[in-house]
Amino acid sequence: MVLEIRLSNFFSIKEEVILDLRAGNIQTKNAKELQCNLFTHNDENILKTVAIYGANASGKSNIIKAIRFCCRMIFNSHTHNENILFNFQPFKFDGYQNKPSKFFIRFVSNETEYEYSYSLTRTEIITEELYHYPNNRKAKVFTRDESIDGKKRNKYSFSNVIKRPFDVAENTSVKTLFISRASQMDRGIGKELFNYFNEKFILGYTDYNSLSLEHNLIANKNFLLKALQIADSDIVDISYRKEKVKLKSLKFIFGSESDSVSNEDTENEILKIETYHKSEPKVAFDFNTEESDGTKKLFICLLSILDIVRNNKTLLIDELETSLHSKLVEFIINLFHASDRAQLIFTTHNTNLLDMKKLRRDQIFFVNKQQDGASDLYSLFDYKDFRENMDAEKGYLQGRFDAIPFIDETKSSLKSILDGE
């Protein structure tokens, strides 16, 4: 489970922003009726879902993008060569391109709480730290500071948690996270963290750390059919099999005088999915060519989500409502609320969710673009004068919480666009 994420100097994020999934102390009638939106860890209430609102270009997608980048560094940094540039941009103004970017995450894996953080430029890791809470008391696992001159023993400090830690440190370049290398070198806590981010913190429906379509179908077919029926789909059965198909592939042939291209048949194995509908349950529909885009999106979403909610994982999604009806969006959110301790972090423009009978104040975050171009992240819970008998959706659309576009829709302004003035 995720407890807290902090980011600074990524894309449009300048100063540190905090996404806190630890619930606030809200004792209102509505909040008490939304106990299913929470679960408890060590006597602390944790949010199952968090919605992030903001205008187009406010930076809400950059928050998702920054988190994904930081997690993928854990997956991939042990493969980095010396000439690599890390795939992110620091904030471009006020000299922040020359300052380090920072990532911090507080999470729980196998009932142990961890705090993991690192800072980096586009070319190298600067610092890295890991703490854990055995017996609920904070203890150091390791710290690293590449700005310190000298040998690895000057830069690193270890407790006794990792066996032969300096063997790992000696094989860790400034392009590589220590925790990524420790996992590769079969160190226990390195593998623990790598597996958490690879298996429990899912970065998207079809991201490379999500389960394959075939694996998910094998595990969740019956649950998927039930979910599709509850979601008012008329699909009553699904079949799937692997098929070998021949596909044309372009192959460049490099000769001594000129380059040419040849078309070659290549045999590929694909997963063939067929669906069966209520009106004619024996007639097969080809999933890829005969189902609507909306049905395919719902199918893929639900298949991934069922694995996540059944196994108490965390899902990160940008624009949850894309290609989905607002009722289906609420259905997906309610699946997480019905889970034991699965979590969903998502951005959205769906203002129907701004309802204190659906989400608590601490589940709603806003992103606003400031005058210097930086993105600010804050919660509805921060508005101490907001009362739950107020209309949050109306207040948001009126600009009370910022995080919306302010559009000049006067007739003269619209006419000036059409007239080219």
UniProtKB/TrEMBL annotation:
Q: Where is the ATPase AAA-type core domain?
A: 51-355
Per the record, the domain of life is Bacteria
Any one GO MF annotation of this record = ATP binding
Query: What InterPro entries does the record tag this protein with?
Result: ATPase_AAA_core (IPR003959), P-loop_NTPase (IPR027417)
Query: What PANTHER family does its record include?
Result: ATPASE AAA-TYPE CORE DOMAIN-CONTAINING PROTEIN, ATPASE-LIKE PROTEIN
* Official protein name in the record: ATPase AAA-type core domain-containing protein
- Which species? Fulvivirga imtechensis AK7
UniProt lineage: Bacteria, Pseudomonadati, Bacteroidota, Cytophagia, Cytophagales
